[in-house]
Amino acid sequence: MAELDTSAKGGKGKKKGPKKASTRIDLTPMVDLAFLLVTFFMLTTTFSKPQVMDIVMPVKDKNPAQEQESQKTEVKQSEAMTIIIGSGDTLVYYFGLDTNKLQTIADFKPQHNEAYDALRKPIVDKQAEMNRGTDISDTSKPKNSDNLFVVIKPTDFSSYQNLVDVLDMMNYTGVKKYAIVDVAESDLILFHNRKK
Amino acid sequence: MPKVKIPRKSTLVDMTAMCDVSFLLLTFFILTTQFRPDEAVTVQTPGSISTAKLPDVDVFTITIDSAGRTYFGIYDHEVLKKTIISAMNDAYDLKLTPEEIAQFGKVGGFGVPINSLKAYLDAPAFERKEKKFMTGIPIDTAHNELGKWVTNSLDAWYIMQGVDTKKQPTVAIKGHKAAGYPVIKRVIAILQEENLNKFKFVTELKAKN
Q1: What is the pTM assigned to this prediction?
Q2: How many CB pairs under 8 A join A and B?
């Protein structure tokens, strides 16, 4: 591929001097090498650091008997929501202690937007209901809807994906207070007796 | 009829411009590159809309794969890793040689029970990803080895930082999306036994829908 320099050929009237070496170099191998290295660095590089979601669990008291006395957080019935994550990407939720109005969401998977909306809508509606009659334009003041307390109860049949999806929904809808709580037997019965 | 002469053009192209561009790209990649940390397993994490990033230092990662096996990873700090392994050596009476301790300083993430740790460190690096060394760290209440790792790691970290440090180590749980909740619950319980109530779930970026 080397280029031949023809310009240095002696012309008719010109003197025959020492041959001028061409200053042009074939750069093709150099480009090859450079692209090889570029490819290597492109493949090994990590552009984006992984995202993280902060989780804060309530401090566990070493003595469970004491815990019941001192550390129970009282939540108003009108400000509580419970989500039970069951088996097969299905979850049920109810507000307050209104277990008669249990709602079921099936196929709660990232690719199913309808299932996401089915959980988002009741939360957003509840927040709107709590804010009714108050001025929410002043962002410096706490809103009534900040008091909404969501209890998340993942059962042993749920997957990690379900849990993260529900937690993500909390972040998305701006729920300030939520907790991951162990399921009780009554919750399992509720889930089992849900409307199908 | 006379032939129409097509002037022959050289097929040679001037490579200088191409060379310039490729070296520019090369420089960019060399400067921005961060080598992927060595992980015991690669797991598919669930998506979230959270935008917080995982820091590079002071991070201890507990990875949970789809089968529920757990792996422990310490961020890249050789001195700290050697302190941790020395503490584990004393706690379990592993009789590790100084070479094995030095080897541990180079390990990124691992998932072996404590009784095969010696064999794991003796094995050459390319053999460490074999099935026999990917059994996971036991987390059951009888052999809570993960808890031991976490305790010793945090102790070593606090000693290294000094008692009056304002910094806090980050403990990240990196679970596979298909991992079952019971394993996650157990890992969280182990962390809570160590009085760790704040930790992070590693997720992938997902578009808002």
Answers
A1: 0.77
A2: 159
User: What phi and psi values does residue B174 have, to the nearest 5 degrees?
Assistant: -115, 95
CB contact under 8 A, A41 and B205: no
Using CB atoms within 10 Å of the CB of residue B76, give its burial: 0 to 12 exposed, 13 to 18 middle, 19+ buried. Answer: middle
> Looking at this predicted complex, what is its ipTM?
0.78
Express each pLDDT in A175-195 by its tens digit.
Answer: 888 888 888 888 888 888 887
Which of these, B69, B65, B67, B73, lies nearest to B42 by C-alpha position?
B65
Q: How many domains does chain A contain in total?
A: 1
CATH number for A166:
3.30.420
Distance, in Å, from the CA atom of A117 to the CA atom of B33, rounded to the nearest integer, reads 40
Residue A153's domain comprises: 77-133+143-192
Q: Judge whether B17 is closer than 8 Å to chain A, CB to CB.
A: no
Q: Decide if B177 and A35 are in contact by the 8 Å CB cutoff.
A: no
Domain range summary for chain B, segments of one domain joined by +:
58-205
Pairwise CB contact (< 8 Å): B198 & A28:
no
* Exposure class string for A142-171: b at 16+ Cβ within 10 A, else e: ebebbbbbbbbbbbebbbbbbbbbbbbbbe
Burial of A140 (0-12, 13-18, 19+ CB in 10 A): exposed
